[in-house]
């Protein structure tokens, strides 16, 4: 049975800013640009915001910094930072706050100038004390460990990992906002520079600038706004470890817990899902999450992604914006999962628009396969 929170809140404003390269702007300036865009999208003004949910890569107290910069005095605020999955958790937290009457218009936001700042930011995946002696290169060393173990245990190949990147580029080529476009083949990925065996440069996410923001209100108000409402249907998080060396099994993430609980909360099955947005910081992520979220059995993820199954025209639409691998990845990517799901559900995704996009699964990842948060967004047809 679906949870009472299902469909009780909706996104009524959404915008991105500075995707790719935005020279001359700080991260919080880009965040503000995205916020102003989301307000314009919803027909609202800054004083209408009374709830702030923020996490960034550079602020110790993000919601306070955002409130100060925007000139907002929120009634409710939260700076939960669990890495790149923070924003999927914020969807749940903001929905609960609105339903409880603690705020009326909730802003969820992120911004970073990681690329034009020379790739420098405070890493959410810094080595832990029990890893430092091994001189890991973070965060890629951790993901390479998971990839190597998956290959050893299940026969997953580098070619199958490459297919994830090729599929993402196929979607990016339909997205004019994507940073990396153009031809990409298996051979290109396999032949790119090895970064941390078995992951090459082609297996790694982009380093970009970018910001995104969305505004949530109660479902009772949602139809009064200019844009088609996108409803929050449910969400759940799970966290089994912080450091990769404490991960119970390198081939099984806590998505195997967050996914089923989110499906139950939303009252949905896999057959209901039209769009799957996964946090693809590295190609192994997509394979692990497809398995752990139940789209294929454990160990079958590599074979599942072969043959263009998750590429444009394939059986399952995955990361239709191009993902972190080819669209945008400014340090933390979770807000952009939301942005693409909103675009698809609204029918505003241009050449990459799916024929049916009523229900989207979003899955955020934080740290080194650490925090996992699954959320569902849907159209009015899903209510």
From TrEMBL:
Gene3D superfamilies: 3.40.47.10. Residues 237-378 form the Thiolase C-terminal domain. It holds the Pfam family Thiolase_C_1. It comes from the Bacteria. InterPro entries: Thiolase (IPR002155), Thiolase-like (IPR016039), Thiolase_C_2 (IPR055140). NCBIfam families: PRK06158.1 (NF004811). This is Thiolase. It comes from Paracoccus onubensis.
